């Protein structure tokens, strides 16, 4: 089942259950996927779908951090629910230990030895963990293993 089919089914389910928060989030996700399809002019591949979902998740996490900093508990709770809905459509996220393992393996593969090789390592790691790990987590792992 494609992502759009899954979103449509979940949209119907949320409508029938009168689940407004899930409904609005699924609508936003569907709109983001449809907009990306229109932009590319063709159906999206699964990697492109994951990229769209990852971008949506990152936007919500960034907003969550800002709202938390501003002590807006009313907005934080809504965003946390949205994040849970978005995460349902993404692949299983890697643990911190798994990310460290992938980064260590990649450092050996590209023969990185110092912080000067940071960009080379990040460029090699990110395609491996695309959609399965947060970029901030990968960045921290690379810095700690190179430093």
Say how many strands there are: 0
Q: Order of SSEs, N→C?
A: HHHHHHH
CATH class category of the largest domain: Mainly Alpha
Helix content: over 70%
Please give the count of helices.
7
Organism: Liquorilactobacillus satsumensis DSM 16230 = JCM 12392
Pfam families: YqeY
Protein name: GatB Yqey domain-containing protein
InterPro entries: Asn/Gln_tRNA_amidoTrase-B-like, GatB_Yqey_C_2, YqeY/Aim41, YqeY/Aim41_N
Write a structural description:
Pfam families: YqeY. It comes from Liquorilactobacillus satsumensis DSM 16230 = JCM 12392. InterPro entries: Asn/Gln_tRNA_amidoTrase-B-like, GatB_Yqey_C_2, YqeY/Aim41, YqeY/Aim41_N. GO terms for molecular function: carbon-nitrogen ligase activity, with glutamine as amido-N-donor. With 147 residues, this protein is mainly α. The protein folds into two domains: 3-89, Uncharacterised protein YqeY/AIM41, N-terminal domain (Hypothetical Protein Yqey, Chain: A, domain1, Orthogonal Bundle), CATH 1.10.1510; 96-146, Orthogonal Bundle (Arc Repressor Mutant, subunit A), CATH 1.10.10.410. The protein is 78% helix and 0% strand. The longest helix is centred in the middle third of the chain and has 24 residues, at 46-69. The mean pLDDT is 91.
